[in-house]
Here is the input.
Amino acid sequence: MTAGGSARPVDAFLAMLAAERGAAANTLLAYRRDLEAAEEALGDLVRADGAALAGLGKDWADLAPASLARRCSALRQFYGFLIDEGLRDDDPSPALPRPATRRPLPRLLSHGEIESLFGRAEEEAASDRPEAVRLLVLLELLYGSGLRASELVALPLASVPRDAPFLTVTGKGGQQRMVPVSGRARAALSRWLVLRPGGGRQLFPSRGAQGHLTRIRLFQLLRDLATRAGIDSAKISPHVLRHAFATHLLEGGADLRVLQTLLGHADISTTQIYTHVDSARLVQLVNARHPLAQRGG
Here is the structure.
């Protein structure tokens, strides 16, 4: 008998991730692929010992360090699950290879580039063409609220704030969070609601199969805007604007935990990538704000 009745351990583990952690479908597929790759190399994962797991370094030598790290992470979580379910008494996962990975820093936009991007978008939106006003709203919500592209394009009309300056956003794993909306973004939203095509429940409706603007189309719109603003279009994407939102908030003194909530990160370690804010500014901050520095004049 396995956990969850007659389910295979891998299937039971994935069911736990879905039920208890709210893992998204794409996340579950990724875990399944990684664990099935391990089964192909090791056979029965439940009975695999430390020596077998240590050998995965050789079996997976051709993998990129990030891919190897991801597979090992899946296995560590899987063995933790087996122990919790009483299917193993020991944890062989310390024998897994530990690749040294450095998470790449996100591409950054300067404050000047952000100003150029917004300047062009505002200039074009002054015509009150629906497409131009919509693009200004998209830009405001990506940089002003830090939304993911998938969250932004799928926003329902009902998420638009009435009186409170917040959006209700459904993020990864179906988790909802409240995201503040700036006065600028609310003004742009008000303009868009007047021009928005009628009918439907989507804030950014489309005649496509999804019923709303797609992430690919959003990407194209932003790159075209960057070109018109005199910015290298290769530097622009929805994700880069989300990075700019996070980085510029930290530069302004935002707390990392607050930023974690705004971005919808389940784990603070994901948010910590944004602590690449330059060291000179951090030194200046300590010198200016630390109680002993203030006491010493």
